[in-house]
C-alpha cells in the first residue's frame, strides 16, 4: 500500500510524459483489479465494463489532484460517484438497477437471530419483499441501494435529495422497517 502512495506522489511530481506513462501503468496495475472487483460487485454485469472505464477515466483525470494517504479509498469514492451517475442515467431512461442482494438486506434487517445461511424459502421471501418494495416504494429501494450497496453516508445521499442528514437517516430506517414488515 505504501508503494502505491509513493507511486502516486511520484506521478504528481514527474514532468516527463514518458515517465508519467510508466508510473501510470504501474499505478493502474494495482488499481484496476480492485476497481473491477468493486464495480462488478455493485451493478449489473452488462453495465460493469462501461462504468469501469468511466471510473478509470475519472481517476486518471483526477490523479494529479490527489493529496490523501489512502489511494484505494479515494478510488472507491470516485467509483461510487460514477456508479451513482449510471444509476441516475438508468432512472431517467426508466431502466432500474438490480435490487440489493437479499443477503445484505437480510443481515441489516436482523431477521435471523442465528448466523446461519439463508434457506431457499427465506431467500425467496426476501426477494419477493424487495420486489414489492421496488413496486410500492421505489425511493426506498434507492435509499437502501445507495446506503448499503454503494456504502454512501447519509450526508451524501441528503445532498442529492435536498434532505438533511437526519432526514435521510430516518427515511432509511423507515425503509428497513418496511422491508422487515414485508418479510415478516
Give the arrangement of secondary structure elements:
Blueprint: H1 2-13, H2 17-40, H3 45-62, H4 71-93, H5 102-109, H6 120-136, H7 138-149, H8 154-161, H9 165-183
Please tally the helical runs, counting DSSP H or I stretches of 4 or more residues. 9
SS class? mainly alpha
- Helix/strand order: HHHHHHHHH
What value does the average pLDDT take? Answer: 77
Distance between the termini: 45 Å
Which bin fits the share of residues in helices?
A: over 70%
Report Rg: 19 Å
Q: Tell me how many strands there are.
A: 0
For the largest beta-sheet, the strand count, sense and barrel status come to: none
Contiguous uncertain segments of 5+ residues: 96-100, 108-115
Choose one word for the global shape: elongated
Percent range for β-strand residues: under 5%
List keywords for this structure.
9 helices, 0% strand, 184 residues, single chain, mainly alpha
What can you see in these coordinates?
With 184 residues, the chain is mainly alpha-helical. It has helices at 2-13, 17-40, 45-62, 71-93, 102-109, 120-136, 138-149, 154-161, 165-183. It is elongated and about 60 Å long.
Amino acid at each position: 500500500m505504501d508503494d502505491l502512495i509513493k507511486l502516486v506522489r511520484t506521478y504528481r511530481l514527474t514532468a516527463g510524459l514518458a515517465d508519467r506513462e510508466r508510473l501510470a501503468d504501474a499505478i493502474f496495475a494495482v488499481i484496476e483489479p480492485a476497481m473491477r472487483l468493486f464495480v462488478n460487485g455493485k451493478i449489473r454485469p452488462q453495465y460493469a465494463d462501461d462504468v469501469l472505464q468511466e471510473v478509470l477515466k475519472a481517476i486518471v483525470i483526477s490523479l494529479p489532484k490527489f493529496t490523501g494517504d489512502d489511494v484505494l479509498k479515494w478510488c472507491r469514492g470516485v467509483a461510487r460517484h460514477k456508479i451513482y451517475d449510471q444509476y441516475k442515467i438508468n432512472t431517467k431512461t426508466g431502466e432500474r438497477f438490480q435490487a440489493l442482494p437479499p443477503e445484505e438486506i437480510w443481515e441489516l434487517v436482523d431477521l435471523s437471530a442465528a448466523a446461519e445461511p439463508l434457506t431457499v424459502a427465506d431467500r425467496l421471501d426476501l426477494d419477493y419483499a424487495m420486489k414489492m418494495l421496488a413496486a410500492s416504494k421505489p425511493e426506498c429501494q434507492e435509499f437502501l441501494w445507495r446506503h448499503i450497496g454503494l456504502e454512501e453516508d447519509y450526508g451524501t445521499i441528503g445532498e442529492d435529495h435536498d434532505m438533511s442528514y437526519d432526514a435521510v437517516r430516518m427515511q432509511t430506517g423507515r425503509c428497513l422497517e418496511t422491508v422487515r414488515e414485508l418479510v415478516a
